[in-house]
Amino acid sequence: AVEALLGILSPDVTLAQNVAQNAGQKRLAESSMARGVAMAKRKQWPLAIKYFTAAFQATPTDPRVLFNLGLANDRAGGRALVAAAWYRAFLIAAPGAGNVAKVNQRVTNLEIETESQIAQMLQTAQTIASQISGKGKVSVLDRIARAHAENGDIPAAQRLVRMIKQVGQKSGRQSGWSEALIAAAQAKSGQFDLAVTLAKSVRFRPAQAWALAEISVLYAGKGNFAQALEISHQIGGGKEQAWAYSRIGALQADAGDTEGAQATLARIKESQIGLRLIVLTHLAGNLSRSGQPWHLDKARTHLNEVVQEANKIKNFETKLDVYLQVIKARIGMADLAGAAALHKLVVTHPHKSIGSRLIAQGKKDFKAAELFRWSGLALQIANSAQLGNVAQLLAQAKLQDPEKGALSIAKIAEKSARMLRRFRQL
């Protein structure tokens, strides 16, 4: 059993750790930890996860909490990658712990298990898809191809795209998300010409817009702003184009191209306030880098104005995204107190972990920053739709009719592949 291999870390285990910020948090952490351990000993893993998560929120750098979150997710079943990310955070928090070698090996095994599970899901979905005909088959094959693209197997995705086109010609239905993902993957690997050609050939407009937006931002990331803007102009409006403009404008500001960033900002509609504020935040950050005291004061004023506007945003997720950008900008101008004050408004995870990582980087506490990077990923994976207990989800999918079942399995495979890719890129 995994418990015998790794050992549950109970509340009285002593490891090097950062203490809770105050007495109330410490009491909450220890109480939640004790309840979590009690549930773990009873093998009530969902409840153990609940209590260990509460302990993490009170004391996010305690190695005992991080380890037990890894163990509880490990034993819950179907949450291999969540467990692996928590174990990674634990290894950073307690590099001298006695079970480091075993935990490292377990992380490797969980990563392999996830990859194998994705392959099995794709094979199962493909087998079921062979029993389907007509328009439903196009949707299923497209989702399977998307999963292959997320998994980095572009040749397999391309083979399915060719099959989709053959089936689509007979059924009168075409899709394009798999081709859009392939185009984005080609751009990430530096094959921009191929990527643009493929993206433009996609007939399904939402998928084409997404692909062109991704490619344009990747171009901007290489410093080729002219090409990035040329491609983004071809999107033809909508939220994908606005998103692309916001990222390009932010990168232009970071590169010191204030005039270019302001011109790109002007292309974003006033109604897209969240995206506009992101560009304005980067412009303020660029202003502060001049080294002139009056520029720094002006940048601080701009950031305060951005926060005031962000407070008006109704979409909570968008508001938190803007807060994180302002936190990053304030850290860039050595305003750690201002960053920490704004961070208090970020009350939900994984955004809170991202903010903690940014502040730790500002303090040059790179160990804590890396810890928050992994805990943030663990929370992101755990919160992702359809990434709960994969085994249960698959069992449910097999009880559905073939089309719905295959589609459900392929969706789980796609999201699992996306998270595995992020895990490996971290």
The averaged pLDDT comes out at 88
What string gives the helices and strands in order? HHHHHHHHHHHHHHHHHHHHHH
Number of helices: 22
Q: Tally of extended strands?
A: 0
Helix content: over 70%
Structural class computed from helices and strand pairing: mainly alpha
| Gyration radius, in Å | 24 Å
| Relative strand content | under 5%
Global morphology: flat
Span between termini: 28 Å
pLDDT under 50 segments (min length 5)?
A: 1-5, 10-20
Biggest sheet descriptor: none
Describe the structure.
With 426 residues, the chain is mostly helical. Helix 11 (205-221) packs antiparallel against helix 12 (225-233) and helix 13 runs parallel beside helix 15 (273-288). It contains 22 helices and no strands.
List its traits.
about 425 residues, mainly alpha, about 75% helix, about 0% strand, disordered N terminus
List the helices and strands and how they pair.
Blueprint: H1 2-6, H2 23-41, H3 45-58, H4 63-76, H5 80-93, H6 100-129, H7 135-150, H8 154-171, H9 177-188, H10 192-201, H11 205-221, H12 225-233, H13 238-254, H14 258-265, H15 273-288, H16 293-310, H17 316-332, H18 336-343, H19 351-362, H20 366-383, H21 390-398, H22 402-425
Helix pairs in contact: 2-3, 3-4, 4-5, 5-6, 5-20, 6-7, 6-22, 7-8, 7-9, 7-22, 8-9, 9-10, 9-11, 10-11, 11-12, 11-13, 12-13, 13-14, 13-15, 14-15, 15-16, 15-17, 16-17, 17-18, 17-19, 18-19, 19-20, 21-22
